[in-house]
């Protein structure tokens, strides 16, 4: 029995060693298989320190003229004759406001004018009569002065009544809203039956066919932007690239968050297919041909090489073992197709700009020219 127990123990130990050897051999085989994956062909580049001789900013297409149509009187909107997207002509009726009270006031002023004019005619007769009597020395100067004063008062009363009617007519005009120019209705703020308040917009109209690009220039580059300068405008959504001119430069950034707003004209042959709100990229070449960057230590990389994961940004580099290594970086300003790297990548350090396969941490890579 003692010999059989020893033999059983020896047998169990031997089986355990065989099992461990088999597992180790399997892991080694899997590791060899993993390490024999074909390397991903990649192209690398070095971070540069020059942003070029252009100023690249972003903007939006907008109409040259936009108007919010509102009224100066309070009343219910009795009719709204347009909807969003409608084309309107200059002078076309857009909406009407209830005006019964204003019409009643105009009738009152008309009655006041008639009364004042009748009193003026009577005063005119007295004035003419006493003027003749005074010349015949049949009336005193005091009597003539009293009649003249009454006559002038009636004239003033007629003038005041007429000016009151002009005021009522002006208020009545605000109950019929018309288009100030030909354009397109881009927004509607109220419907028929709603209460219109003074200054409250009812519809918004955008002048058709008069597009321009509005963009913001930072204070570090505004000195290089000149009125009348020709710039390159690229609108990717409309696949259009054309030359425009800077037609307006706002000299103040007080109400624009430290950015200076400029306006760029769009030539007539490039306006087809454009809509207000489209994003545009503007490239400005300063007349002085000065590079945007003056610090030689600035690190720039292509925007296309940046990897975004959640709230982090990074790019792939090549490790000493020829594997891809994702490195997190902190970005700064964007210059066209390049972006500044503030930390995480040293100047002239190489990074991956293009890969012929999927990149992830640890994947073998092969650098190609």
Compact summary:
It is built from 3 helices and 23 strands. It is an alpha+beta fold. A 6-stranded antiparallel barrel has the order 2-11-14-13-12-15.
3D structure, described in words:
The protein has about 375 residues and is an alpha+beta fold. It folds into four domains: about 40-50 and about 295-365, conserved putative lor/sdh protein from methanococcus maripaludis s2 fold, CATH 2.40.420.20; about 55-65 and about 210-285, Elongation Factor Tu (Ef-tu), domain 3 (Beta Barrel); about 65-100 and about 175-205, RNA polymerase II/Efflux pump adaptor protein, barrel-sandwich hybrid domain (OB fold (Dihydrolipoamide Acetyltransferase, E2P), Beta Barrel), CATH 2.40.50; about 100-175, Helix Hairpins (Orthogonal Bundle). It has helices at about 1-35, 100-135, 140-175; strands at about 40-45, 55-65, 65-70, 75-80, 85-90, 95, 175-180, 185-190, 195, 200-205, 210-220, 230-235, 240-250, 260-265, 280-285, 300, 305-310, 310-320, 325-330, 330-335, 340-345, 350-355, 365. A six-stranded antiparallel beta barrel has the order 2-11-14-13-12-15. A four-stranded antiparallel β-sheet has the order 3-10-8-5, with no helix packed on it. It has a four-stranded antiparallel β-sheet with strand order 7-6-4-9, with no helix packed on it. Helix 2 packs antiparallel against helix 3 (about 140-175). It is elongated. The chain starts with a helix and ends with a strand. Mean pLDDT is about 85; it is low at about 25-35 and about 290-295.
């Amino acid at each position: 029995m003692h010999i059989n127990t020893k033999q059983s123990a020896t047998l169990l130990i031997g089986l355990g060693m065989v099992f461990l050897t088999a597992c180790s051999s399997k892991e080694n085989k899997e590791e060899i298989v993993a390490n024999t994956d074909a390397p991903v062909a990649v192209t690398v580049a070095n971070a540069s320190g020059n942003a070029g001789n252009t100023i690249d900013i972003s903007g939006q297409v907008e109409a040259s003229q936009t108007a919010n149509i509102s009224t100066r009187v309070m009343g219910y909107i009795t009719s709204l004759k347009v909807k969003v997207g409608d084309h309107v002509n200059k002078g076309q009726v857009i909406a009407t406001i209830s005006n019964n009270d204003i019409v009643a006031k105009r009738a009152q002023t008309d009655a006041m004018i008639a009364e004042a004019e009748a009193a003026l005619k009577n005063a005119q007769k007295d004035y003419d009569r006493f003027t003749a009597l005074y010349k015949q020395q049949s009336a005193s100067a005091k009597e003539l002065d009293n009649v003249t004063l009454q006559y002038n008062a009636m004239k003033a009363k007629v003038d005041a009544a007429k000016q009151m009617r002009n005021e009522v007519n002006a208020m009545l005009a605000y109950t019929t809203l018309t288009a100030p120019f030909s354009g397109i209705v881009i927004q509607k703020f109220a419907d028929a039956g709603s209460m219109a308040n003074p200054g409250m917009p009812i519809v918004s109209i955008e002048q058709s066919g008069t597009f321009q690009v509005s963009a913001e220039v930072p204070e570090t580059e505004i000195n290089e932007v000149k009125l009348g300068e020709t710039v390159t405008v690229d609108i990717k959504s409309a696949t259009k690239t054309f030359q425009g001119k800077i037609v307006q430069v706002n000299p103040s950034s007080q109400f624009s968050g430290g950015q200076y707003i400029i306006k760029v004209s769009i030539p007539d042959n490039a306006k087809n297919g454009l809509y207000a709100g489209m994003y545009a990229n503007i490239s400005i070449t300063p007349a002085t041909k000065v590079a945007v960057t003056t610090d030689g230590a600035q690190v720039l990389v292509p925007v296309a090489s940046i990897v975004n994961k959640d709230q982090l940004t990074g790019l792939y580099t090549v490790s000493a073992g020829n594997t891809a290594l994702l490195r997190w970086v902190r970005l700064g300003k964007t210059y066209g197709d390049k972006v500044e790297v503030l930390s995480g990548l040293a100047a002239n350090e190489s990074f991956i700009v293009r890969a012929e396969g999927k990149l992830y941490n640890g994947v073998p890579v092969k650098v190609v020219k």
